[in-house]
Amino acid sequence: MIKEIVYKALTLAALALALSMSSCGGKGDAGYAPRPQAYPRIEFPDSVYVPIEIGGVTMLFNDSTEIHESPSGAMRGAWIDVRYKCLTSPELYLTLTQSDDTLEIAEALENRRERMALNLGQERAELIELTSRGGWDCQLVVARASVTTPVQVLAWRHGEMLSGALVVNVPDSLRADPAYIAPVVEGVERDMLVLLKNL
Q1: pTM for the complete prediction?
Q2: Fewer CB atoms near the end CB (10 Å): N or C, the chain?
Q3: Local structure of 28: helix, strand or coil
């Protein structure tokens, strides 16, 4: 009987000791080790689109964007600034170029291709090519590791060219972390595919 009582007492003491040690392990909410602060998750707008006509060309834009259009410089066409209403306020800068001069459009295309290559630098990129419903030849370039111009577009048909790039306002402390803007890159890639397919 005494042995049984001593055994139970020792078992309870060992259990109490184990519990007290596990609560001091520093893994609970009151742990001593400082935790890294996570960056806020970017919630990207849903895939709801509205048609907007610019320069006689109908384009589908995300309903959660602000569109600002202004006349372009030398040639006919327009500058189109597309601002997303989400964290970091990503902006897509598009240029619609229109000209009756075939050579002028060909030169603009060549200049744009060169600019796209310079924007990429040494980054690896995915290239998606397609022909739109309206007969535009289209290219979508996505460089997921880039935090400057991760998405670029180029589309053309006789007498017209649409080009542009996404610019994301990333804090300097996060410039080395492409995962931070991954939701934006994926969302804009989706939206630009919709826009290009429906030109």
Answers
A1: 0.74
A2: N
A3: coil
